[in-house]
Amino acid sequence: MEKETENFLYVTIDTALDKEATIKIPARCVDKLENGDYQVFIKNKDRFSYLDKKSPANHKIMYGTTVAKNLQRQSGNVPLYSDNANIKLKQVFHEFDFLISQGLGFDRSFETIGKDLKATYQETEKQLDKLDTKRKL
After folding, report:
1. CB 118, CB 89: distance < 8 Å
2. Coil, helix or strand at residue 108
3. How many whole angstroms separate alpha carbon 110 and alpha carbon 46?
4. What values do phi and psi take at 45, rounded to 5?
5. Phi and psi of 12, rounded to 5°?
6. Which phi and psi angles does 60 have, rounded to 5°?
7. pLDDT at 124
8. How far apart are CA 40 and CA 65, in angstroms?
9. In angstroms, how far apart are the furthest CA atoms of the chain?
């Protein structure tokens, strides 16, 4: 992180072959955590303009997917996409279908995956609530 203002968080990221650039992430997309770290909420198709430090007159656009990958490389944190919860939910249902196809029966299959399904559902609800809160800002 380079600097923080009321409207933007300025972050230096690597673009390619030892080139660095500064991007502005709108404050509405950033949560400052109690420990001083930042949590960033961006969409894959969000567009960020950036300045190449070696040639400042050269403005370019970077999409949210690329920004997330760069931030992941720099911080070591794995990005959590809003679709992760949906993927987990689909995986639980696939497991359920598999158990039934193996002859385990509906009730027994549901008992087997019930805890995973409930935990995944609750996680999905929390993530959706966070996303809804972010959109309102």
Report:
1. no
2. helix
3. 39
4. -95, 5
5. -90, 130
6. -135, 170
7. 79
8. 12
9. 66
Confidence category of residue 137, pLDDT binned at 50, 70, 90: low
CA separation, residue 104 to residues 55, 61, 120 (Å): 64, 53, 22
Letter for the amino acid at 124? T
> What integer pLDDT is reported at residue 136 of this predicted model?
63
Distance CA 24, CA 2 (A): 10
The DSSP element (H or E) to which 77 belongs, if any, is none
Residues 103-125: what's their mean pLDDT?
A: 79
Cα–Cα distance between 60 and 21 in angstroms, integer?
A: 10
pLDDT per residue over 45-84, tens digit each?
889 888 776 776 777 888 988 888 888 888 777 676 655 6
